[in-house]
Amino acid sequence: MKRYQIYLDPQSVAIIDDVARDIGTSRSHIIRDVVDRVAREYKKILTAKTAYASRNNPLLKMAGFAKGLPSNLSQNIDEIYLKD
Q: Where are the domains of the chain?
């Protein structure tokens, strides 16, 4: 774990302190939990955005334009060239 210094709104700190006192934990623990949870949510957003960008890539769409060709096309071409 690394140490970081951040600025927080005093009202937010007061709420965090009340919650920490009620559940018997520290302010730091709550802040770490919140940051971890938000970071996981942002990671989900980034993952979804990357997947969306990949699906909408025009080059990747063109790669699948030749649907319906036999799956062993390269094998058949090899057989043609090897016949001679």
A: 10-83
